[in-house]
Inverse folding.
């Protein structure tokens, strides 16, 4: 089985330093299931390709499978361990070989080119034969990749035959500008996920491997549940432990949520057909349009869901996203593909790390600020600090705040407690109205409160939205 990594970074042969492999040599490594070779079929200053070729030994593979308890069903015929697709289709076998031969690159380490390890490089990765039990686009695109997955047709099958058509295999090409360590960690996790199989027994230490390889991207991935379950071979106890840790990583520790509103809604039992996260974003965008703002802050931007919508609207000439979590900002950067958008459009968007409970002079002078599903993640004793920094110090002309309506929670079947594991509180309508009135009065704003989402006669709307307008700007 084969995997190639190509870059056009100049000099492109720096790829050899990052992979810790000399482009003029063929490097061979013994692995438990065969031999892994690394070679460079193309190595010039303009373009360099590194190829990882795994030569699977059926006898070694059979011994590795037989030496441990098998998680998959045993082969159904005598020669099954010899006659199968394992030596040819990319799988956990290739991921394991990648982890062994590119160990330093996966960790983002390079003795000779340390300055390059943190630099996003133009990359093209190809896996010519990959067994796909899922959609590669859904797994790789949220990480900043352009994905081409060409189905591989079955050979020598006449039209009309029940087996005619495409095989369950694809020729996968990923194109993007990413750090090499990120790219390799994506492959390490997602190749066995797409195959939905592991060639070895999955023990509890696999959780640590998953969390280490998924650091900075898995917690905010829209398919994190599927990825976690498949990577851990559908072992429920292991998946539950890993997801609990990912949820902790995803939530901000003090000031603002790492998660986006869309991701947060994924944990919420669905009470209505229409997406509440979508309705919320539309309501916020409408409020911003009404305000006439052109320079906007998204405070606690998380993975960048609202930022993506703001970028599409040309009325916004300057857009700033802030979050206390560097991991959230990395996710937003990838989601927005800021390395690849035209320079003129890239200049409209800025991402800053900033805690909302501390004054930040960079946030002063903007037309509007949004705190979308943010305040409920702040410990109540810290709310006055947030109010002072946003309404007292930054003082945008308009502030839009959304937060859950706790009264509505009874309409979600199976929901006990609050809507998200990191919520520190959830206000009912009277409590929210009281907070908005006190905050507006203390800092010189007028305020209007609206509901977002389908309204229940008794319990109100699922989301509450307040629009603060600074009096001297009214």
């Amino acid at each position: 089985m084969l995997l190639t990594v190509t870059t056009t970074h100049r000099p492109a042969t720096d790829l050899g330093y990052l992979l810790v492999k000399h482009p003029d040599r063929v490097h061979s490594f013994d692995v438990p299931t065969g031999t892994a070779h690394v070679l460079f079929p193309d190595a010039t200053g303009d373009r360099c390709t590194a190829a990882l070729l795994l030569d699977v030994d059926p006898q070694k593979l059979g011994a590795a499978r037989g030496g441990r308890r098998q998680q998959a069903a045993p082969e159904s015929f005598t020669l099954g361990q010899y006659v199968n697709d394992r030596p040819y289709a990319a799988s956990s076998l290739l991921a394991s070989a990648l982890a062994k031969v590119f160990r330093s690159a996966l960790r983002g380490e390079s003795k000779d080119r340390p300055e390059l390890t943190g630099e996003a490089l133009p990359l093209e990765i190809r896996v010519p034969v990959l067994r796909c039990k899922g959609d590669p686009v859904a797994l790789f695109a949220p990480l900043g990749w352009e994905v081409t997955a060409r189905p591989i047709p079955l050979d020598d099958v006449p039209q009309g035959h029940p087996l005619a058509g495409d095989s369950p295999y694809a020729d996968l090409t990923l194109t993007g500008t990413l750090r090499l360590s990120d790219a390799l960690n994506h492959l390490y996790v997602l190749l066995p996920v797409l195959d939905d199989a592991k060639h070895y027994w999955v023990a509890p230490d696999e959780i640590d491997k998953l969390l280490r390889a998924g650091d900075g991207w898995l917690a905010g991935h829209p398919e994190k549940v599927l990825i976690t379950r498949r990577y851990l071979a559908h072992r429920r106890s292991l998946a539950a432990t890993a997801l609990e840790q990912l949820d902790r990583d995803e939530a901000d520790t003090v000031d603002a949520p790492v998660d986006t509103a869309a991701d947060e809604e994924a944990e919420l039992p669905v009470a209505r057909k229409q997406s509440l996260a979508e309705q919320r974003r539309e309501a916020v965008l409408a409020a911003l349009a009404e305000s006439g703002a052109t320079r906007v802050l998204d405070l606690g931007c998380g993975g960048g869901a609202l930022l993506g919508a703001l970028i599409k609207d040309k009325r916004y000439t300057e857009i700033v996203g802030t979050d206390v979590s560097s991991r959230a900002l990395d996710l937003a950067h990838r989601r927005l593909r800021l390395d690849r958008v035209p320079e003129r459009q890239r200049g409209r968007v800025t991402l800053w790390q900033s805690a909302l409970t501390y004054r930040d002079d960079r946030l002063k002078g903007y037309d509007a600020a949004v705190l979308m599903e943010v305040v409920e993640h702040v410990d109540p004793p810290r709310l006055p600090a947030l109010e002072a920094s946003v309404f007292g110090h930054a003082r945008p002309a308009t502030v839009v705040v959304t937060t859950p309506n706790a009264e509505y929670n009874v309409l979600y079947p199976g929901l006990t407690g609050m809507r998200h594991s990191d919520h520190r509180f959830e206000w009912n309508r009277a409590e929210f109205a009281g907070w908005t009135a006190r905050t507006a009065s203390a800092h010189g704003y007028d305020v209007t409160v609206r509901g977002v989402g389908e309204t229940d006669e008794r319990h109100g709307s699922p989301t509450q939205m307040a629009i603060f307008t600074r009096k001297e700007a009214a």
User: Anything to note?
Assistant: The CA atoms of residues 335 and 420 lie 23 Å apart. Residues 261-473 form a domain with the Rossmann fold fold (CATH 3.40.50.150).
